[in-house]
Every structure is written in structure tokens, then in C-alpha cells.
Amino acid sequence: MSPIVKLNKVSKSFGSLNVLQGVSFDVAQGSVVAIIGRSGSGKSTALRCMNGLEKINGGEITVCNHHLHQNVTKAQLRALHLDVGIVFQSYNLFPHLTVGQNIMLAPKWVRKQSKAEAKDLAAEVLGKVGLAEKFDAYPEQLSGGQQQRVAIARSLAMQPKLMLFDEVTSALDPELTGEVLKVMENLAKDGMTMVLVTHEMAFAKGVGDKVIFMHQGKVWEEGDGEILSAPQTPELRQFVGNGL
Amino acid sequence: MLTSFQIQALLVAALWTAGLSLIAFSLGGAVGLLIAVMRVSANRVLRAISFTYIQIVQGTPLLVQMMLAFFGLSILGFSIEPFTAASAAMVIYSSAYFGEIWRGGILAVPKTQWEAAECLALHPFQRFWLIIVPQGLRISTPPTVGFMVQIVKNTSLASVIGVAELTYTSKLINNSTFQPFTVFSLVAVLYFCMCYPLAWWSRKLEDKLNVAHR
Ligand SMILES: Nc1ncnc2c1ncn2[C@@H]1O[C@H](COP(=O)(O)OP(=O)(O)OP(=O)(O)O)[C@@H](O)[C@H]1O
Ligand SMILES: [Mg+2]
């Protein structure tokens, strides 16, 4: 089966800073890919390029049959966003809306679902992240871990074919990290295709079907979780050494 | 002391003051929202028009705007009621300030909110009106309510073109009773009764927002 995501020699620079320098990798349908690497190695940028939040300067990206290149149009990006969900480190819930409204917004306005349909869907995805009772709460009334789970539910409500996660537990205390990772693990078990940038090495190794180590804007090493136990490059060896 | 007739006249005048204020809140608010949206628009012409509008209105005294609306239009041959002229001036005046206040609020909404909305495949129009504007208005609530207090007090300038609002009526009554202390104390109390709830509301909202953004 052809991969659901394909990056081919992707380059991206901010001014004179070359953040991505020929990044290539594939994501197979239904797999979990974990991207690890030092701060500033370009992990977030790679993820943001994959759903068009950053325009690439060279190479090409194919995501769920959408082609991203230098001249991608707004309509093409919107079509892409119908298929790809993303969860950010800072949750980015809409603070003026309740949890339920946060989740129902896109199904109602984008998918044109009726209020009743959207409500059922919201209840379902909230149940999946274990927060069914928080439907009418405002984001500010929730803990960080709960907010992040709502953000995951909001993304799930659009029934994406692929989900991207950018260090979604980095702002959380260790106790709250666990509850978010549990939700992600369940998603992986349900067969969701996921690409996640993470600093949780144990999670990357345990849940990731593929681990990608980025260094200085390049894919430095790539393989299954075992590359973390037996690094081939001194850079990954050093990174794992520091991380564990 | 004042006769009950005089007290009644002051209360009626207070209603005119309240009415003028409500017109400025509602119509001025509607025009102000339009101005704010033009100010943050991607269209350069709309930005220039709204910028110029705000500069002109903020750069001239409300008193002069009142006179222009009344005498200016009269001289041009339009007959215009003082209250209509005063309403027009209040709407123009308040819309410029509301526009500037809300522009600031809209721009203060973090960029990440735009991104989150975009990643949910919302149209740019939906992103703006469903996500950004409500938050921008919420951020600007304290200055908005603060300015509403100014509006109530500034309706007193309508007295110069003969609108029988509180200030105008109090001068009339004072001229016939020669009890300035009694008359103007009563007037001050009436203004205070209209402004204090707004000021109190503003403080409460500010506290609430501070808690939310802790
Ligand atoms: N919008 C931007 N404008 C300019 N430079 C940027 C921008 N976004 C990222 N960068 C720079 O690009 C480089 C890579 O950033 P990126 O966020 O992709 O790193 P990262 O691997 O996700 O790091 P971290 O682990 O700290 O999140 C950094 O040097 C960063 O300063
Ligand atoms: Mg990052």
C-alpha cells in the first residue's frame, strides 16, 4: 500500500536560516511515526509543513493525496485540513467557547452537521478522551491535561485520516502527561495514523512503529524503536544518552 | 426647594440623556465594529478610509462636531432637529473610539487562535467572525465600558445646540430658581446614577478577565 504521507527532499528556510535541508520520509497508513531530536532541529517545522502552516521552499509533500509545493493555493490547503488534524503543545482551545462548543464548531460550520448530530459526535469523542462530564465547562476551568484531551477530541470530531501532534505533553506535569499519552495510545490501537513530535522516549519506543531522529534540519537516523537502544550515529547516541 | 414640576422636568431630561447615550452605544457600536473590521482588513483602501475617519473624529472636539451637525446642515438648507443632530454627532464620535478600541482587541488575539481555526478547515470569514472577533471584543471589554461612561458624560455637550437633556434643563431651571447648589447637586446625582453602574461593571469585568488570564 502506498504511504499516506510522503516527504521528498523538503527544504524550508526562514530568511537565511535553513531549517529543513532535504527531509524525506514516509508514513504508512495506520502507523505511528515519532519524530525526536534536539531543540531547534526542525521537528515542529517539519510537522507544520505537513499541514501547510508553513510553505515549503523546495521538494514536495504528499499528504492524504494532497500535494503541497511552493505554489499551493488556499483552497488546496483547506481541502487538506479536512483530512488532517493537528494538536499543539499549547492546546489552542477557543477560550470563549465551552468544551462542547469547541468540539461542535467545525462539524457544524464545516461539515454542515445538524446541531443534534454535532452534539452526539461531540459526546462520543469526549467519551473517547474520558471527559464526557466536561461538556459545558470552559477551557479555563480545566487542568492542562484535560484541556489537551479536549483539543484531541476537537480534532477527532473532524474524523481526520491523519493526526499530527507537536509535543502535546511538553507543557504538562508528569501526572497529567500520562493521561494524555494514554489517550494517544488508544488512538493508535484504533488504527489512527499519527505523526508525533515528542520528548517522551519511552512512548516513542513503545508506541511508535517508526522513529525518526532529526538533526540540523535533516533526517539523521530512522528505524523502528530499536534505534533508540542501538544508535548508529554519535549524535543519536548522545541525544539518547542525555534523554534517558 | 424645587417644585415637583421642576424635579419632574429634570427626570424627563435625564431620560433624554439616557436616550442619547443608548443611541451612541448601539448605533455608534455598530458603526464602530464596521470601522474596527475595516482597520484590520487586508484591503489597503478600507484601512486608509477607516484610519482617516478615526483621525479626523479623534482630532476634533465633540462640541465642534455637534455644532457642525446642527448649524452646518442648517446652513446648507437641511432643517434638522437638535436631537437628530446631536444623535448623529454622538454616533460619529463614539464609532471612531469604539473602532480604535476594538481594533486593538482584535489584534491582541494570539496568532495561534487563527492557526487552530485554520487547521479545523474553517473559512477565513468563519475564523474571523466566530473565533477572532468574539475574543477581541472580550479583551476590549474594560476599555469599552470605560468609554461608555465618557459617552454618558459627553452627551451634556448636546446642550449647546438646544437638546433638552439633563445639563440644558438644569441650566434653565437654575435660571428661574437661583438655587444652583440644589439644582446641580441633583443633576450630579442623576449623572452619577447612570455612570456608576457602568464603572462598577467595568471593574468587575476587569477582575474577571485578570482571573481568566492568570
Ligand atoms: N516562524 C519562524 N521564523 C523564524 N525562525 C523560525 C520560525 N519557526 C522556527 N524557526 C527557527 O527554526 C529552527 C527550527 O525550529 P523548530 O521549531 O522546527 O524546532 P524544533 O525541533 O521543533 O525545536 P523544539 O524542540 O524546541 O520545539 C529554530 O532555530 C527556530 O528558531
Ligand atoms: Mg518544536
TrEMBL record, chain A:
Signal peptide: none annotated. The keyword ATP-binding applies. Pfam families: ABC_tran (PF00005). It is found in: Cell membrane. Its main location: membrane. GO terms for molecular function: ABC-type amino acid transporter activity; ATP binding; ATP hydrolysis activity. SUPFAM superfamilies: P-loop containing nucleoside triphosphate hydrolases (SSF52540). InterPro entries: AAA+_ATPase, ABC_ATPase_HisP-typ, ABC_transporter-like_ATP-bd, ABC_transporter-like_CS, MetN_ABC_transporter-like, P-loop_NTPase. Residues 5-241 form the ABC transporter domain. GO terms for cellular component: plasma membrane. Keywords: Amino-acid transport, ATP-binding, Cell membrane, Membrane, Nucleotide-binding, Transport. The keyword Transport applies. Belongs to the ABC transporter superfamily. This is Amino acid ABC transporter ATP-binding protein, PAAT family.
From TrEMBL, chain B:
It comes from the Bacteria. The keyword Iron-sulfur does not apply. It is a multi-pass membrane protein. Its main location: membrane. CDD domains: TM_PBP2 (cd06261). Keywords: Cell membrane, Membrane, Transmembrane, Transmembrane helix, Transport. It comes from Paracoccus laeviglucosivorans. GO terms for cellular component: ATP-binding cassette (ABC) transporter complex. This is Amino acid ABC transporter membrane protein 2, PAAT family. InterPro entries: AA_ABC_transptr_permease_3TM, ArtM/GltK/GlnP/TcyL/YhdX-like, MetI-like, MetI-like_sf. The chain crosses the membrane at residues 12-38, 70-93, 181-201. It is found in: Cell inner membrane; Cell membrane. Residues 14-199 form the ABC transmembrane type-1 domain. The gene is lgnB. The keyword Cytoplasm does not apply. Belongs to the binding-protein-dependent transport system permease family. HisMQ subfamily. One of its GO terms (biological process) is amino acid transport.
